[in-house]
C-alpha cells in the first residue's frame, strides 16, 4: 500500500492564494526553494485537479523564455515538476495533455486514488487542488497532511480557502521546520473525527 500525502501552502489565515499577490506571496527564499527541489526528487506521483493543472502548466511554460518572471531557482523547481509523474483528475480537459509526463483521469478521483494506493509503485502527493485534497481526506485515504504557512494575513484579498467544507480532523504532529526564518512547515498524521476528541465516539 502506497502512502498519500496531502500538501498545501497557505497564508496564516488559511488562504491558498490572494488576488494581486505573486506566487508564494512573494516570500519564497533560497532555503525553501532548495527544499522544494529536493522534494521533487523523492519519487512521488503528483495528483492535481484541472485548475491547478492549468496554473502550474502556465508557470512551467515560462521556463527558459525571454522575459520570464521566474528566477533561476523557481525555474529549476518548475523543471523538476515537468519531469515528475503527474495525474490530473478532470471531466473537462481533453487527452492528450500537452504537459510532459501527465496522465488524465476523467472518472471518480477517490476511487482512482484508492486503486493507485493499492497498485502504484510510487508514493502519491497532491499539489494544490483544494477540493481534491478535501475529498481524499474525507474518504480516509490520506496518510500525511503537510502545510506550509507563509507569514501573511490576506483577509481582504485572499482566495481559495483551504479548510472550508472539511470534516473535523485531529492532527498528530510528526515534524515541524522553519525556512528562511519566516516560512513554517508543519507535518501531521490526520484522523477524521466523528465527534470531538474525548467523546468516546471513535475517530
List the main descriptive attributes of the protein structure presented here:
eight-stranded mixed beta sheet; Dihydrofolate Reductase, subunit A; single chain; alpha/beta; 203 residues; two-stranded antiparallel sheet
Helix/strand order: EEHEHHEEHEHEEEE
- Tell me the span between the first and last alpha carbons: 21 Å
Shape summary: globular
Give the integer mean of the pLDDT values: 89
Task: Give the oligomer, counting copies of the same chain as homo and different chains as hetero.
Answer: single chain
| C-alpha-based Rg, rounded | 17 Å
Return residue spans where pLDDT drops below 50 for at least 5 consecutive residues.
none
Instruction: Give a short account of the largest sheet.
Output: 8 strands, mixed
- CATH homologous superfamily, by name? Dihydrofolate Reductase, subunit A
User: Per CATH, which architecture?
Assistant: 3-Layer(aba) Sandwich
**How many domains?**
1
CATH level-1 class: Alpha Beta
CATH fold-level topology: Dihydrofolate Reductase, subunit A
Helix content, binned percent: 25-40%
Strand order of the largest sheet: 5-4-3-6-1-7-10-9
**Helix/strand/pairing category:** alpha/beta
> How many alpha or pi helices?
5
Number of strands: 10
Proportion in β-strands: 25-35%
Amino acid at each position: 500500500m502506497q502512502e498519500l500525502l496531502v500538501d498545501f501552502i497557505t497564508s496564516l489565515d488559511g488562504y491558498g492564494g490572494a488576488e494581486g499577490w505573486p506566487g508564494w506571496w512573494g516570500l519564497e527564499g533560497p532555503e525553501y526553494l532548495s527544499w522544494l527541489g529536493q522534494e521533487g526528487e523523492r519519487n512521488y506521483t503528483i495528483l492535481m485537479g484541472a485548475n491547478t493543472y492549468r496554473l502550474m502548466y502556465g508557470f512551467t511554460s515560462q521556463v527558459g523564455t525571454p522575459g520570464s518572471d521566474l528566477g533561476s531557482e523557481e525555474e529549476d523547481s518548475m523543471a523538476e515538476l515537468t519531469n515528475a509523474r503527474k495525474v490530473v483528475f478532470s471531466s473537462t480537459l481533453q487527452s492528450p495533455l500537452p504537459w510532459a509526463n501527465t496522465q488524465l483521469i476523467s472518472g471518480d478521483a477517490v476511487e482512482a486514488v484508492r486503486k493507485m494506493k493499492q497498485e502504484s509503485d510510487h508514493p502519491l502527493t497532491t499539489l494544490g487542488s483544494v477540493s481534491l485534497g478535501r475529498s481524499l481526506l474525507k474518504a480516509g485515504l490520506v496518510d500525511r497532511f503537510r502545510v506550509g504557512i507563509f507569514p501573511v494575513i490576506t483577509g481582504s484579498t485572499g482566495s481559495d480557502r483551504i479548510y472550508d467544507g472539511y470534516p473535523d480532523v485531529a492532527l498528530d504532529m510528526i515534524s515541524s521546520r522553519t525556512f528562511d526564518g519566516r516560512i513554517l512547515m508543519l507535518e501531521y498524521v490526520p484522523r477524521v473525527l466523528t465527534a470531538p476528541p474525548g467523546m468516546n465516539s471513535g475517530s
